[in-house]
Task: inverse folding
């Protein structure tokens, strides 16, 4: 069985450093069990992050060089349709880099392949090109799925652990750079917008401060406190004292 | 001329056999990697290394030195004097044979003491097997030689008896010479070579050399897989082992039933060189030994379930150096373990499952538990600790270390910071620019991550001006002081106990009345054995006026808390836990407090349950004393005493 692992340039959740996403290290372990000569595939402009993949035991790694803002799906689809692997293994979600987590689905659509998400184990059926998979379901349930290959699968974190990273393997690993097609820029699937509109209060505050506040250097603490309270009342953040008591009366 | 003349020829034959036997080992050593050895300096230093350094270690066990001095001294003296008998003018000299008689007699006394250590019951730490023959051979050679020489010196009154004693001497002598290849007598020749070509010549005399050696990450093979991957003088070192078992008696992992015995490990490494024809090991087995299926060989892997040494043995070590400290043959056990770990980690990625995450985190975000570097100083929020980036320079750079993320140790660090502020010390921290020092990565064999962290930290440190680095973490202290030197980082690093001692002596800190506490101080391995600092923490404790009690194992021979070398991370199971054992030793002193000076020791000893002494860092005890002093100094005007803040 010919297996390929799709690799993405992830980012470490704490440091933001380019790393291979842990889930894809698990994908490599799963692919190795099926095909000792499996290979990795990445489309991008630099090998940052994916260069770690040989350290997890990946025998070889192909890098399709494309410009930074180019959609990687056509490049990957062209390469995969040429090499026709039996199984394409991928991560299941974006890991902090320029990945969206949608790539396996876009690729399945482009290649007209079935996609099975969240698998925790994979084995090849002895007969006629079928694959047997275990799919993770919510609440720890698992489902056994047998399907016709070729197919795309995404790996779930409950899959067997990745092999520990070995520096010398990463150092010896070779990356084959191949020119990817010079496609168009990735389609703007989404409109970029801040998470929510700015709260009304802040806009008000901005408008107020436009008038020019006063900077008071080293004030007496009591004065400073009074000034802050006045300021907040002016903004409407803090209701005037008599107003507040009136509201309470009404409730009674 | 009597039978004694043949004694001379017997010694010549013994020397010939010994040379032949040791040559077989020399051929094995020569297959090791090359090593730089200062031969002339080593030869010149040999007498001093043997008579002073080795004797100093041997003499810690009085019984051993009382045994070894006559048996080795007598053997050498008797043999050299017998050789003098080859000079024709001296062959018939009765006084000469009288001297030879004296040499053999001394040896006979020693041989008797050797016998007493092994018969009727051997000391538990000694090896049996081939080693049980040694007293017999020594007695035969010494007694035979003494009688032969003695009879000759009084004119050989009974020639047949002389022949008989000569025969006994020959049996013993030849037997001893044959033992040079694989038996106990190997330690004599290999040990002498080892002293000359020692891989760490700086450790002799008053020197100390404990920093792990760096390796070239571009080398074709990283670390040690097979015996021939060791430098040749390390192979020689393994052969120097006489299986006295002092390392085993000192090893904390052995004591708690983890599958490690330094003696067994070194014997295995010596056996692995020659493969299948090595004699069986006669010492105590690894506790809870995991079975291994392989025979060794110069080109065969050492570590593995199908090799000579089980991986659990390798990962049980806390790198506490107790074995190295105890070894009279000056063998460097820890170096061997780290070299073997490096191959496992860097080449195979075969680290214990629990060590994977910490190493991944260190590679990914420079912190073993995956916490942001910016959170390191969170514990000191509100204390007004300056960050050096904002001020550019400070007298003292405070290296917070891993303990800053640990709730318990944060208390210690806060106490230290308050002491520094009370004493008006000009200090600053690195803030989010402080990465892990790399200690854990290096001890777990991940030299690549260590070197990256070291270079990054050195780059950061080179951007600021400071006089000294202060740290409360002896592991960071050791790495910053000794191991960054190999990568271009040279710093004056001071442990917090030493700085507090300075502040107390200079009067920048003053303490109140005598504290009514009994305290026992637990030496951190990386401060004590690794850096030779035993006095400052004790001086501090004396200064604040607590009653100080010593555990049986303290100072240079203190027992590890179990927290070093990545042992808490690899977590190899044993019968019990190392900190439990250490805490029991602390409890035996009846002290109410165990004083610690290391985040590792604090965490390990705090983890001991039951009725045990309280764990307090030296800094916490000093802060308590200083605050007590301030309260006492305040006018007692009926108002309740207040805590005085700096």
Result:
């Amino acid at each position: 069985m010919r297996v390929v692992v799709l690799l993405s340039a992830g980012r470490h959740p704490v440091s933001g450093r380019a790393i291979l996403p842990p889930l894809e290290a698990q994908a490599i372990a799963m692919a190795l069990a099926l095909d000792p000569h499996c290979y990795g595939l990445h489309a991008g402009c630099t090998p940052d992050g994916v260069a770690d993949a040989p350290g997890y035991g990946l025998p070889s790694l192909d890098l399709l060089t494309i410009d930074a803002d180019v959609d990687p799906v056509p490049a990957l689809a062209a390469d995969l349709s040429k090499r026709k692997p039996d199984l394409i293994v991928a991560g299941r979600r974006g890991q902090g880099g320029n990945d969206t987590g949608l790539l396996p689905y876009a690729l399945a659509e482009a290649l007209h392949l079935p996609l099975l998400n969240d698998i925790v184990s994979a084995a090849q059926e002895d007969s006629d090109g079928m694959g047997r998979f275990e799919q993770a379901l919510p609440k720890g349930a698992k489902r056994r799925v047998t399907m016709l290959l070729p197919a795309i699968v995404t790996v779930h974190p409950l899959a067997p652990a990745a092999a520990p990273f070995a520096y010398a393997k990463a150092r010896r690993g070779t990356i084959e750079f191949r020119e990817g097609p010079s496609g168009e820029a990735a389609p703007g699937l989404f409109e970029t917008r801040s998470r929510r509109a700015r709260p009304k209060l802040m806009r008000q505050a901005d408008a107020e401060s436009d008038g020019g506040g006063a900077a008071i250097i080293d004030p007496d603490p009591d004065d400073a406190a009074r000034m802050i309270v006045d300021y907040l009342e002016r903004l409407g953040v803090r209701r005037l004292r008599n107003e507040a008591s009136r509201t309470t009366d009404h409730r009674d | 001329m009597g039978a004694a003349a043949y004694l001379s020829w017997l010694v010549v034959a013994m020397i010939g056999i010994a040379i032949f036997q040791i040559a077989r080992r020399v051929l094995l050593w020569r297959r090791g990697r090359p090593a730089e050895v200062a031969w002339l300096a080593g030869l010149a230093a040999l007498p001093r290394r043997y008579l002073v350094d080795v004797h100093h270690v041997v003499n810690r066990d009085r019984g051993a030195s009382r045994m070894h001095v006559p048996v080795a001294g007598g053997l050498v003296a008797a043999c050299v004097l017998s050789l003098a008998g080859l000079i024709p003018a001296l062959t018939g000299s009765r006084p000469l044979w009288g001297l030879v008689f004296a040499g053999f007699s001394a040896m006979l006394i020693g041989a008797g003491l050797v016998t007493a250590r092994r018969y009727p019951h051997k000391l538990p730490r000694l090896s049996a097997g081939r080693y049980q023959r040694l007293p017999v051979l020594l007695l035969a050679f010494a007694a035979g030689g003494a009688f032969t020489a003695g009879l000759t010196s009084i004119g050989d009154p009974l020639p047949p008896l002389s022949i008989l004693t000569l025969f006994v001497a020959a049996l013993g002598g030849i037997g001893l010479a044959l033992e040079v290849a694989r038996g106990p007598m190997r330690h004599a020749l290999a040990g002498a070579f080892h002293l000359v070509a020692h891989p760490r010549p700086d450790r002799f005399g008053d020197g100390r050399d404990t920093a792990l050696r760096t390796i070239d990450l571009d080398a074709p093979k990283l670390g040690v897989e097979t015996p021939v991957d060791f430098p040749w003088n390390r192979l020689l070192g393994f052969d120097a082992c006489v299986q006295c078992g002092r390392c085993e008696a000192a090893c904390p992992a052995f004591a708690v039933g983890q599958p490690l015995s330094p003696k067994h490990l070194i014997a295995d490494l010596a056996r692995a060189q020659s493969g299948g024809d090595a004699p069986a090991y006669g010492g105590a087995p690894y506790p809870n030994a995991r079975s291994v299926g392989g025979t060794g060989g110069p080109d065969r892997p050492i570590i593995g379930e199908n090799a000579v040494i089980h991986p659990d043995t390798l990962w049980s070590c806390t790198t506490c150096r107790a074995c190295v400290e105890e070894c009279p043959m000056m063998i460097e056990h820890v170096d061997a373990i780290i070299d073997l770990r490096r191959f496992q980690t860097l080449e195979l990625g075969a680290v214990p499952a629990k060590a994977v995450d910490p190493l991944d985190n260190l590679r990914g975000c420079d912190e073993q538990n995956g916490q942001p570097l910016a959170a390191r100083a969170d514990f000191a929020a509100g204390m007004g600790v300056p960050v050096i980036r904002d001020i550019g320079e400070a007298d003292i750079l405070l290296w917070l270390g891993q303990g800053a993320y640990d709730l318990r140790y944060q208390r210690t660090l806060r106490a230290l910071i308050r002491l520094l502020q009370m004493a008006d010390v000009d200090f600053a921290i690195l803030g989010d620019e402080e990465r892990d020092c790399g200690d854990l990565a290096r001890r777990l064999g991940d030299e690549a991550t260590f070197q990256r962290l070291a270079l990054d930290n050195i780059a950061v440190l080179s951007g600021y001006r400071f006089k000294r680095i202060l740290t409360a973490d002896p592991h960071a202290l050791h790495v910053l002081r000794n191991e960054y030197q190999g990568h271009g980082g040279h710093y004056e690093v001071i442990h917090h106990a030493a700085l507090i001692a300075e502040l107390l002596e200079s009067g920048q800190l003053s303490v109140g009345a005598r504290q009514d506490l009994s305290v026992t101080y637990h030496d951190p391995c990386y401060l004590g054995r690794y850096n030779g600092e035993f006095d400052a923490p004790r001086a501090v404790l004396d200064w604040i006026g607590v009653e100080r009690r010593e555990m049986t194992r303290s100072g240079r021979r203190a027992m590890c808390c179990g927290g070093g070398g990545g042992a808490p991370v690899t977590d190899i199971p044993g019968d019990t836990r190392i900190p439990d054992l250490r805490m029991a030793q602390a409890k035996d002193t009846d002290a109410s407090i165990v004083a610690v000076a290391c985040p590792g020791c604090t965490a390990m000893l705090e983890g001991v349950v039951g009725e045990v002494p309280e764990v307090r860092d030296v800094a916490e005890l000093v802060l308590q004393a200083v605050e007590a002093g301030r309260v006492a100094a305040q006018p007692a005007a009926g108002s309740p005493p207040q805590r005085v803040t700096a």
